[in-house]
Amino acid sequence: MVWVSGWKLASAVSNAGGLGLIGAGSMYPEVLQEHIQKCKNATDKPFGVNVPMLYPEIEKIMDIIVTEGVKIVFTSAGNPKTWTSFLKEKGITVVHVVSSVKFALKAELAGVDAIVCEGFEAGGHNGREETTTFTLIPMVKEQVNIPVIAAGGIASGRGMLAAMVLGADGVQIGSRFAATQESSAHINFKNSIVAVKDGDTQLTLKELAPVRLIKNKFFNDLQTLYQQKSTKDDLQKLLGRARAKKGMFEGDLEEGELEIGQIAGLIHKIEPVKEVINEIINDFNEVKAFISKL
Description:
CATH topology: TIM Barrel
Helix content: 40-55%
Number of strands: 10
Strand order of the largest sheet: 1-2-3-4-5-7-8
Order of helices and strands: HEHEHEHEHEEHEHEHHEEHHHH
CATH architecture: Alpha-Beta Barrel
Largest sheet: 7 strands, parallel
CATH superfamily: Aldolase class I
Distance between the termini: 38 Å
CATH class: Alpha Beta
Shape: globular
Strand content: 5-15%
Number of helices: 13
């Protein structure tokens, strides 16, 4: 949720009954601190921060999280052993994002409180295994003894219920909230999410870091490089810097990275967060009640 989930989105989700997360991956330390402080002023409900552990100023980020009294941290893109003990010693609940059974077991061994199991349907950076969410959840649930949160390809109450039937204790939803009014994404990107149909996104750049993107000019330029048998360095050169910011935050739909999940094909309008959560919960309850009568 880089460039998408700032304090406005996180606080709105928490105020509506979910657990809002500030996406620290696109923030300098001082920017994150500002977002945490504004989020605390905007909600009296719990919220958390998602921290990609490959972040270059990770020590400053963690110090700010502790100083500002954040109680929940979701870590991703790195070894959970690195920061889990530090955070838990400060009384912080730690959840780690994984894409395979192997990494789920390593996260449990590292002492995390819960794991997010994210299938390759998800938007943004992803696992190399291309394991789907509904395959991953039961396999992980069979192996671990800590709570399992499903992510990737979930945007409705039906999807939430299906994930929980397969063993998930809860769900994490990204793409649906990227297209909300409170999302910090550019309106051009939000409109492109609503326009997505099945087949309009694809996982690419496995040589660098797998990422699911909307097929735009930048994506097509990547495919041209692949056809030319280009090297990893060629791909890195085309990628350059700040592609995600250019596309998702600045609204360049041609040259920017447009990270979104396959489930965007079910997102048809830009709504307030509260309405989205109400729709998801109502859908969940209606389908659950229907199934109980079968």
